[in-house]
User: Which sequence fits this backbone?
């Protein structure tokens, strides 16, 4: 099921056609470049300019987009709160804006590439290399020993420098 996070460009009310009730009442909701139909008599929770998160589907017959609904027939559209634009909490913004002379209780560790190891990333990479070697038939599972793993770890260290 596709998902989009963006700003509502327009909401069209298609419940009436030429002053008469439409046979298939719906709303058209345009979020960024996606236009989706809300097949419901429920008024949409969003309006033009709102930042929303919307799940939508694609019709198998016509290829048109429609707003997905949950089991209670509520549209899967969520309006994002206005305060979501601030990427940092207040305490971090204060720390970043603190004068350089003012001592803080936080002392960042300098990043040194040779002394810092990403053990989780290395583990994933080594496992992937070993699995690829086994699937390719380069060696068998019972042939893997500490020497093989050490060679793969050395290769990882060379690649990440």
Assistant:
């Amino acid at each position: 099921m596709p998902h989009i996070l963006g700003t509502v460009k327009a909401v069209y009310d298609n419940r009436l056609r030429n002053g008469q009730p439409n046979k298939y009442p719906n709303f058209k909701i345009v979020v960024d470049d996606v236009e989706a139909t809300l097949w419901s008599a429920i008024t949409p929770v969003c309006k033009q300019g709102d930042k929303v998160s919307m799940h939508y589907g694609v019709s198998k017959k016509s290829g048109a987009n429609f707003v997905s609904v949950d089991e209670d027939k509520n549209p899967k559209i969520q309006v994002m709160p206005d305060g979501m634009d601030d990427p940092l909490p207040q305490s971090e913004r204060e720390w970043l804006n603190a004068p350089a002379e003012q001592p803080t209780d936080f002392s960042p560790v300098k990043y040194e590439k040779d002394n810092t190891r990403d053990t989780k990333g290395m583990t994933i990479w080594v496992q992937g290399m070993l699995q690829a070697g086994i699937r390719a038939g380069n060696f068998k599972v019972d042939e893997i020993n500490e020497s093989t793993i050490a060679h793969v770890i050395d290769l990882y260290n060379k690649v990440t420098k």
